[in-house]
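Appendix C. Worked example: DNA-binding MarR family transcriptional regulator
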Amino acid sequence: MHGPDDAAEQIAALLDGIVRRQRRASREGFGESVTHGQFRVLRTLDRADRALRLSELAAQLGIVPRSATSVVDDLEAAGLVERQPDPHDRRATLVDLTPNGRQILNTLREKRRDVMVSQLSRLTPEEQQVLAHLLQRLAND
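Step 2, the predicted output written as structure tokens:
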């Protein structure tokens, strides 16, 4: 017998597959140079529209500061972010995107969008609107 749990499991598996395919395709050309976690850091810094303290960055990402430090270390080594002293607190460090970090982020976003456009092309415009509406309802919490 198929019940709501079966539908939930099927939907979860389908969404996981779509997200994995999108991540894989959007990284093409970058190899493994930018992980999903690193992409999230770049995106968070871009959305903040200012340099963030490591603690702020960690809080916005929902991770512990030590994890944020590790990701920032790797991104800094790749030249995608830079650290600078906080002018208001000598003990704190600010993190911001470099021009190269912004360029990589924009390219990754474009690739991600292109992959989604390709996937959605199998649906009619009306189906796309219904899907967007349903996903929005699920995303609101």
